[in-house]
Design a protein that fits this description.
440 residues; Aminopeptidase; Alpha-Beta Plaits; 2 domains; 6-stranded mixed sheet; 35% helix; elongated; binds zinc ion
């Protein structure tokens, strides 16, 4: 049975408050970004030095956050991480709000206003849940220890996304303590449930009107890439009915496993019709048959067999078009085999998302990164579902995905370099200054 909360986007798609994204022009964004960077240049060396000075604090915070196990959908949930973030940010004068739609599935927003002005609001964003550690024998160090070895911190979530969470906290602290004349709001959102689609995390913050911002960085990338577009995802359960009978009746009874053999093969081969290649998200939509359950007993013909398919959609492709394509395949099979009884059910749906490369949020992030690390990250799409879509379409927040991390998502020996971590904090601070540094 589907968890109804995992289907919330079925209703939302096409009715989003912010589906029509603001217009932007690349050269205007670039010119504006460069002007802002020039305006804050005199503050930057001091800010960068302050981040370096906080190295020990930053590393011990990250190790504590990695040590607070928060594997997605485990009973302890994200609460242990949220408590650390809340403690640190309250200590820096931030107002903290937490929501918990299910026990321990905590999401948090912390804000502090400077110079009496609500806007602009700069939002640092990360998720607190992780995927499981997987096979422990493949880890060189215990996955929840946060071992520091030769300038790297190892652990589950080091890249995805606990350096994001920690960088947000450290940057928020640096800005609060900077003594600079800031005008606007610094906010940190650390959320639950990203690895399962965000329905129990960011979606809950948005429903309660708690997520806002005029510029947001979702802190989880590699130095060379700003991620600005991503695929959507459908988990589809397909069930075939047969007839339960003694094995001796095999000549006449319908075997659900054998029927499913035909259905699974046809779905795995299917092509989607209603989509276009995307300039930034590579490839096309695809379906993979990834789970099967069927049969009850050694001496009974199975009366039921079901599979779960992982379908990844392209930006612009809708759930209804995907279901129409699946319906056509199943309809053709029924026509060839009148005894086939097959049904399908959506278990989870996550929309695709994209922000244009000309948007000021993209260009300002590229400029801030260039100023700190001397590399201009390329704006690219990713073949994965992310929380970006919620921020863009449902909360109207210009959000890009960026950090100086490592490509160690979901693998054993996940790690971050301490240099990359500090560079990330520096870039967040510079980007924030571009929005918040008051005129003098
Ligand atoms: Zn992540």
């Amino acid at each position: 049975m589907a968890d109804p909360i995992r289907l919330s986007e079925v209703e939302i798609e096409g009715h989003e408050k912010f589906r029509d994204w603001r217009r932007s022009d690349y050269s205007e964004s670039l010119e504006e970004g460069r002007a802002r960077l020039r305006r804050v240049e005199r503050y930057i060396p001091g800010i960068l030095a302050e981040v370096d000075r906080l190295e020990e604090y930053a590393v011990s915070l990250l190790r504590e956050v990695i040590g607070a196990e928060s594997v997605n959908s485990s009973p302890g949930g994200e609460r242990p991480v949220a408590e650390i973030v809340a403690r640190e940010l309250r200590g820096q004068g931030y107002q903290v709000q937490m929501v918990e739609p299910e026990p321990n599935r905590t999401s948090l927003v912390a804000s502090r206003t400077f110079g009496g002005a609500q806007h602009p609001e700069v939002l640092f964003y990360g998720h607190m849940d992780t995927v499981p550690a997987g096979n422990l024998s493949e880890w060189r160090y215990p996955p929840f220890e946060g071992r520091v070895v030769e300038g790297k911190v190892f652990g589950r979530g080091a890249q995805d996304c606990k350096t994001g969470v920690s960088s947000a906290v450290v940057a928020a602290r640096v800005l609060a303590q900077s003594g600079l004349k800031l005008s606007g709001t610094v906010s940190v959102a650390t959320v639950a449930d990203e690895e399962a689609g965000g329905h129990k995390g960011v979606h809950q913050l948005i429903e309660r009107g708690l997520l806002h911002g005029d510029y947001a960085v979702y802190i989880e990338s590699v130095p060379e890439e700003v991620h600005i577009a991503h695929n959507g995802m459908v988990w589809l359960k397909v069930t075939v009915r047969g007839e339960s009978a003694h094995s001796s009746k095999k000549a006449t009874a319908t075997n659900a496993i054998l029927e499913m053999g035909k259905v699974a093969a046809a779905l795995d081969r299917m092509e989607f019709t209603d989509w276009k290649p995307h300039a930034l998200v590579p490839g096309g939509p695809y379906i993979s048959v990834n789970k099967i359950v069927g049969g009850n007993k050694e001496n009974m013909i199975p009366d039921e067999c079901s599979i779960t398919c992982d379908i990844r959609t392209m930006p612009g492709q809708t759930l209804s078009s995907v279901l129409a394509d699946v319906g056509k395949i199943l309809g053709d099979l029924r026509q060839k085999d009148p005894k086939l009884i097959v049904s399908h059910e959506v278990l989870t749906y996550g929309r695709s998302g994209e922000i244009p490369p000309s948007d000021p949020a993209v260009v300002f992030t590229q400029l801030a990164a260039e100023r700190v690390i001397g590399i201009t990250p390329k704006a690219v799409g990713v073949r994965a579902l992310t929380d970006q879509r919620w921020a863009l379409y449902d909360a109207g927040i210009p959000m890009v995905i960026y950090s100086c991390g490592t490509p160690t998502w979901h693998v054993p020996n996940e790690y971050i370099t301490i240099k990359g971590y500090l560079d990330t904090v520096k870039i967040l601070c510079v980007a924030a200054l571009m929005h918040l540094a008051g005129e003098e």
